[in-house]
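Progress against Task 2.4 (sequence-to-structure conversion) is shown through the following example record, which the project officer requested during the mid-term review.
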Amino acid sequence: MTEQAWAGGLALLGVPPLPDLDGVDRHIADLDAAVAHHRELAAESGHAHRLARANSGPAADAVDDQVTGRDGITFTAGDLAGRLSNLAGTLRVTRETLLWVGGLLTGLAALAVAAVAYAPHLLPRLRAIAARLSTRLREITARLGALMRGMSTHLTTRRVDKVADRFHDAWRAPRMLPDGAYEPRVKTTTDAAWIKKHDTDQVDIANTRYRDLPADWKHENQESARIGVQLVDEARASGVDVRGERFMEEASSVVHDKWLVRNRDWASAEQRRPYELLSEAEKEKDRDVIRMVLGI
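Structure tokens generated for the chain above:
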């Protein structure tokens, strides 16, 4: 049966063209590569941890936390490898199901072509069967799309949190004391859940890791990170050179504009200027947001 006749058979059945599985195959290949990368990263971080255990002190403790802590490289890389592996497995099962349903519709298309010439009275029954299969096919592809969107959202959220965590560490780094603690910076929080858990509305944001901050003291870093990740992702999807100076300046300008919307009430006269009129020191703050996203 020629491709033209097959397409004609599907048209007789009222069924749209079958989905192209090449995209699914590319997703599976990309996921397999990502799984291998993150498993290798987890293994390498374990080796680094074994080397660090031979030492002691604040630096060794910091390495231990960054490598084996809840948000450390070993855990996050291993967790992500597991999630991506599960997703790749689900895609493989989905692909086989799509092939099976597509094969049935292909067979019905051939029968429809034959029915036109030899048994036209069978066409209504064939169309009814094809409609049920086509509905099933749409359900499968819809679930596949939801699955991919869910994983994309999860990965984006992780990237945003990772960038926001780095913002927080970069902010408090100059406050580090010889003993590894930080010069205190106590603030008041309105996060009811955090207040209930800690029995106080006072939080030392300098000596609190990002993940343990109350929601209101995470917000600013989260917003800057979210905007930075969005700008970089959109640029990459459009084929823009995200390492180029033009993108850096355009994206940094957006970062500044969005920051000003959130913080205009307390921003200085200098910070209220358009990006183009800012001092180099102020521009660098906005550029650092994009650099941090590109660095993860």
